[in-house]
Amino acid sequence: MRKHKIGLNVMAVMAVMGAIARPATAQAQGKSIVETAAAAGSFKTLVQAVEAAGLTETLSGPGPYTVFAPTDDAFSKLPPGALESLLKNPEALKSVLLFHVVPGRVMAADVVKLKTAKTALGQTVQIDTSNGVHVENAGVVKTDIAAGNGVIHVIDAVMLPKNDVIEAARSAGSFRTLLAAIEAAGLTDTLRGDGPFTVFAPTDEAFAKLPKNTLDGLLKDKVKLASVLTYHVVSGKVTAADVVKLKEARTVQGQSVMIDASSGVKVNASNVVNPDVPATNGVIHVIDAVLLPPNVKLGDANGEVGRSLRLAIERGAPLFNSGNVEACAAVYEVSALTVLELAGDELDAGLRARLAQGLRAAGQSHGAADRAWALRHAFDDVLAAEYEMTRMTSAR
Fold this sequence. Notes:
The chain is of the alpha+beta class. Helices cover 47% and strands 18% of the residues. The longest helix has 28 residues. The chain is globular and about 60 Å long. The N terminus and C terminus are likely disordered.
């Protein structure tokens, strides 16, 4: 599992890209990307969109950035009303624009050697050089336009990001608190993954019902925050038609939520107010209250690691054995990320190192089965060590 630090607002994006804006620095090296695009005369719509999305300062910073820049003609190919709709929705517009930005200066000679590139949005674009150069659905028509803080490659179509769980929530416009919490817990990349995931998503109004000190406390405690958020996620795509047949559902967090379909649909004490919001990697069911696990306190860090990993194996092994290998790998990765990245120094250094090794091995694997086994082997080693530590402590 890779580090999960993809921003959901301008400042976070700037941090991820190393771009705390210092326009004067870029100008000292030449015109910025925004100034270069404006001077070219064929990117009027792009420059307007960058301004409307609040990204002018970011893309005028030191970077460097590589921008796949759609021309005015490219924007004109969008379906009728699409551009107008984006300009009225700055968050959705920002996502589209960041899908065209790759951190770093990637020249044409480098692009043709790539199959994919990670964008500033956090999603990956596909690159095809079999017949000219295409990035996603767009053809590259001009390359290596130099700017003081990066390089521009001109493309003939606007690229639209995948409507994954994160983008589906962002487009809805009523999940700002949820998205901020996902970012704070370091789970953004996880929920951009293949999944599939079923997310019971509390609205901003649902979060507002929590006592302020409760929400503030969660945002300051990554362990509890991750536990609460993963308690809203079920592995697999469970549509409303499936939900109403269930009495409970096991969450990625490890504990189950109770489902009551006798009068509407309730998940624990929350109501499902809008089911089946589609995403490319799952489905969102909108709920009107935040789900709180029965016990989100870690207690002893090493003991909690053992509990978390055993729950992950209990949930993941049947998925693997039934052929749902990708879901098993996702469950293992979320569990490993939670205990490794969020338990901090409270976790024994040896256990932390073994989990880190497992995550690195999973990140270098070429398939879901290899990812799952890399983490399972790490889990088994950690559980054996945790058992021995407990036994020795008890014997004293």
